[in-house]
Amino acid sequence: MSTVVIHNPFSTRFIRPGVIPWHSTTTSPSALLNTLKDFDNRVIISGPHGSGKSTLLRHFCSAARVQGHEVCYLRCHSWIDVMRAIRLFVDVSPRHDFVCIDSFEMLSFFGWFLCLIADLRGIGVVVTVHERPWWCTWPVLVNTKTRFKTFDKLVQELMTKCSRTEMINFSKEMLQDVFKRNSGNFRESFFELYDHYESHSRTTLHMRKRQ
Asked: Which domain holds residue 167?
C-alpha cells in the first residue's frame, strides 16, 4: 500500500525569510541596493512584527551578492550578540562590503557604538528595526506594511508550489479572518494556516482510508 505524503506549504522551510518571495509595488531588493549610495550606504528597514522586514533584508543580501558585493549577515537575538556585531564592523572592507543586521534594536545602546564605527569607517549597512532607535540617525528607507492582497497572493503561491497532493482550498473569507485575527502579521498568519492545513490533511487522509 502506497503512503500519501502531504507537504504543508506553511512549514517553516517554505516561509522563512529568503525562501518566501518578496512582493511589493513600491520597492524591490535591487532598487534598494541601487538607492543606497544616495544615503551614504547606511539605511534602515522599519516595520511591525511579521511585515516582511527580514524577508526584504534576505533578498537584499542575495541581490548584493549577485552584483559582486560581499555581504556579512547577522540575526540578533539579544544584546549578547554585540561582540559578533563589533567583529563584523571591524573586519569588513568599507569599499566593497555590506553589513546586514536583522533586529538591530536588540543590541540596545551598544548599537549606538556600532553606528559610530560604521559612520567613521564608511561601512555600508542595512538594518531592520521595529522603530528607529533614538541613538541611530540613519534614514528609514523602507517602511514595511502588510496588506491582505499581498497575503492572499503569497498563500496561493505557497499552496501551488509546495503542496504535492490534491489542493486544499481556503476560502477568501477564511483567509481574511486569519489575517485580521493576527493583526496583519504575515508570520503569525502563516503559523495559523499551518494548523488549519494539518487539520484538513488529517481529515483528507482519514476519508481516503475509509474508501
From this structure: 146-210
**Overall domain count for the chain:** 2
Indicate if the pLDDT at residue 3 is higher than 50.
Answer: no
Question: pLDDT tens digits, residue range 109-159?
Answer: 889 999 999 999 999 999 999 999 988 999 999 999 999 999 999 999 998
Cα angle for residues 74, 75, 76 (degrees, 5° grid): 110
User: Where does 95-178 show beta strands of DSSP type E?
Assistant: 97-102, 124-129, 140-143
165 and 90 housed in the same domain: no
Q: CB of 194 within 8 A of CB of 10? A: yes
Residue 60 parent element (H or E): helix 53-66
Q: Is the pLDDT of residue 163 over 70?
A: no
113 phi-psi bin (left φ>0, alpha ψ -120 to 50, beta other): alpha
| Range 75-96 burial, b when 16+ CB lie within 10 A, else e | ebeeeebbeebeebbeebeeee
Alpha-carbon torsion angle 139, 97, 82, 110, nearest 10? -30
Span of 16-25, 89-98, 117-126, 186-195 with lowest mean pLDDT:
89-98
The pLDDT value recorded for residue 204 is 59
Question: Is residue 4 one of the residues assigned to a domain?
Answer: no
User: Across-strand partners of 17?
Assistant: 20
As given in the structure block, the three cell numbers for residue 209 are 482510508
